[in-house]
Amino acid sequence: MKAARLYGPGDIRILDVETPKPGPHDLLCRVVRAGICGTDHSIFSGRFVGVRDGSVKFPMTPGHEWSGVVVSAGASVTGFEPGNRVVGDTAVSCGTCYECLMGQYSRCRRGRAVGTLNAWDGAWAEYILMPARHVFHVPGAVSYDNAAMAEPAATALHAVTQAGVEPGDAVLVFGSGTIGIAAAKLAKLSGAARLVVVGRRRFKLRVALRLGADGIINTTETSLKEGLMHQFGSQEVDRVIEASGSVDLLRAALDIVRTGGSVATVAFYDSRMDGLDIDRVVLRGVTIKGVSGSLGMYRPILQLMDCGMLDLAPLITARLTLDDLPAALSQSKAGGRGIKSMIDISEP
């Protein structure tokens, strides 16, 4: 099969490699769509903290956002058969530890991330091998494009739930990428009374408005404080979802969240935060939740997509093929004009 193999920062090669063979509990899936996310860009550039500390192992096949079709199933697999449309988790658990045997796969200490840290080979390939316990059926009304974005949407939903968004809340989202905009939509569906997205790109912020944000703050045109007063009539909000990866905005989030409020961080940071006034956070009773991954969140996302309440296809701003990847990654920067680049790997 054809696969994109990353040998180190800036060194990605499209190669013919052996198609994996499913074990008794595995599914071999033909990949139809695969997304490119900010973490992929960060690993390719070498900025990602996991590259610097050695937890990203090369060579490997990236790609943790995907949708596809089951080609073959292992002898012990039940509930799946060739032709089923599917998506897969962003991590693969060991399947044998106590936590896995109890079905608590997200707590597995020997797990491997799909296409990123200590990678299980990902979906920038014609086929992907996945344990059946980490695969989910795609409902009939959900397109392959939307299904491939179930992963970032599930991560966004995890951020919304960890932030504790409740009906009537004033919610601020930092970041106008896929996860930020998805989190904004999902926070509104969770009952946020007013939802505002903060970013620097007019095009992205316009998309956020089309997908249901009540307001936007473009920090290239106005200060954050002025924007908060205009949008909320206050410089405090109930919940903040930090999806930008900016240490400065994370620090700002801790300043503007109200006493007893919460901040969910759903980004990786290329630098450390210095000078945090932790006493102020403690005295104000602010809750900080770190969010990475989305195990357990796929089913509600797919159900929302199936009933038409969540459509993320408008976030796709570029389409390419596997052969286009080396040039596209070398020429593009995460956070630019585009939002989601989608790789068309095979025909539905």
Key attributes of the depicted protein:
single chain; 348 residues; alpha/beta; Quinone Oxidoreductase, Chain A, domain 1; Rossmann fold; 7-stranded mixed beta sheet; 6-stranded parallel beta sheet; 17 strands; 28% helix; globular
Q: So, CATH architecture of the largest domain?
A: Alpha-Beta Complex
Spell out the CATH superfamily of the largest domain. Medium-chain alcohol dehydrogenases, catalytic domain
Through-space gap between termini: 17 Å
Total of helices: 12
User: In terms of per-residue confidence, which ranges show pLDDT below 50 for 5 or more consecutive residues?
Assistant: none
Judged by helices, strands and strand pairing, the structural class is: alpha/beta
Total E-strand runs: 17
Helix and strand run = EEEHHEEEHEEEHHEHEHEHEHEHEHEHE
Largest sheet: 7 strands, mixed
In percent, how much strand structure appears in the residues? 25-35%
Global Rg: 20 Å
Helix content: 25-40%
The CATH class of the largest domain turns out to be Alpha Beta
Q: Quote the CATH topology of the largest domain.
A: Quinone Oxidoreductase, Chain A, domain 1
Question: Any idea what the shape is?
Answer: globular
- What is the average of the pLDDT values? 94
Number of domains: 2
Describe it for me?
- The chain folds into two domains: about 1-150 and about 310-345, Medium-chain alcohol dehydrogenases, catalytic domain (Quinone Oxidoreductase, Chain A, domain 1); about 150-290, Rossmann fold.
- The relative contact order is 0.16.
- The strands form four sheets. Strands 3, 4, 5, 8, 9, 16 and 17 form a seven-stranded mixed β-sheet that branches.
- Strand 10 (about 170-175), helix 6 (about 180-190) and strand 11 form a beta-alpha-beta unit.
- The protein is built from twelve helices and 17 strands.
- It has about 350 residues and is of the alpha/beta class.
- Helices cover about 30% and strands about 25% of the residues.
- Helix 5 packs across helix 6 and helix 5 (about 150-165) packs across helix 11.
- The two termini are about 15 Å apart.
- It has helices spanning about 40-45, 50, 100, 145-150, 150-165, 180-190, 200-210, 225-230, 245-255, 280-285, 300-305, 325-330; strands at about 1-10, 10-15, 25-35, 65-75, 85-90, 90, 110-115, 125-130, 135, 170-175, 195-200, 215-220, 235-240, 255-265, 285-290, 315-320, 340-345.
